Amino acid sequence: MTGPYYARATKLIGLSAIARGRTPNLVSLMLDAGLDPQALFNPEMRVEYSGFCSLLQLCARQWDMPDIGLRLAKQQEIDFLGPVALVTRSEKTVRGAIDAIIANLVIYSNATFVALEETGGTASVILVQRDDAPQDRCNTELVVAQAKCVLNTLVERDIDLVEASFRHEKGPSAAAVSSYFQCPVRYEAERNALSFDTGLLDRPLAYADQFQQIPIRRYLTKLRTEAAGNIVEMARRAVAQRMEQGSCTLETVAETLQLPPHTLQRRLRAEGTTIRGLVEEWRRHRALSLVTNTRLPLSQVSDALGYSEQSVFTQAFRRWYGAPPKRYRSEMPVAGNYATGHRS
């Protein structure tokens, strides 16, 4: 059984090669992290997300390898996404493939979601780990590096990035990060993201097959529905995605879920919630994460949460946590450690 957050065992691809000849051996570390070593041989398995993060931390510490996430990404290709990688054959453009990955990512993992933002001539792939899911530096760097791997596959070359940004502090893996992404790197940012020329989004995919498009989409829809769970969890993910893009309404969430707005509203009410309630929940969790896990100015935190005025954010934070954000941050210092730098 896995916990509330999972990833396909394909997330482990390449770790055996890195582990070869090292001590402690990989099987021992997996057992210490609470993971079944059979996951190394069964890509269809789900592994508990917290266990995977613990495993990366153990590998980084025991093997003196703070850049373990980047090393693992170098061992992987787009196939780490499992069935979701089929979008390269079902979609016509890079934009279509990214949108399809965003829609179907829950098949691979329910701990991370992705949003695509376009501002002027720059596009950004935003990678968001659920605020209540386990997080650490090594895994965050792996997730962002995997995104570069996917983009490289879609554009059929090593993509030229405008910027790579991370929510965590600059740490012992900084030199490896700079070498891997080959672009300006910004730490202690509002979000984990990769930015690139928006013109690449309309690049046609070389392997798109119009005859496979419908069956692949149907197959992924079936897997997505099975993985996503109930309507509240599906809506919760859609709300998070839309809020990362700057706005969220019943209509936009319904569009994401491919449901009529009135149907979505009715089904959510039957479960005792609303889109407004899910937005409030997202803001509450994200506010705590940004206040305690980053050094962003509170004005930027307020903007990131979609508030028009910082005073409104301050009032909301006090209502949620019993103290204004400035005082809460000063009384709750963030602890870090060698392997994780725990600000991601």
TrEMBL record:
Gene Ontology MF terms: DNA-binding transcription factor activity; transcription cis-regulatory region binding
Keywords: DNA-binding, Transcription, Transcription regulation
UniProt domain HTH araC/xylS-type: residue ranges: 233-331
Any one of the GO CC terms: cytosol
InterPro entries: AraC-type_N, Homeodomain-like_sf, HTH_AraC, Tscrpt_reg_AraC-type_HTH
Record-linked PROSITE patterns: HTH_ARAC_FAMILY_2
Gene3D superfamilies, per database record: Homeodomain-like
Protein name: HTH-type transcriptional regulator VirS
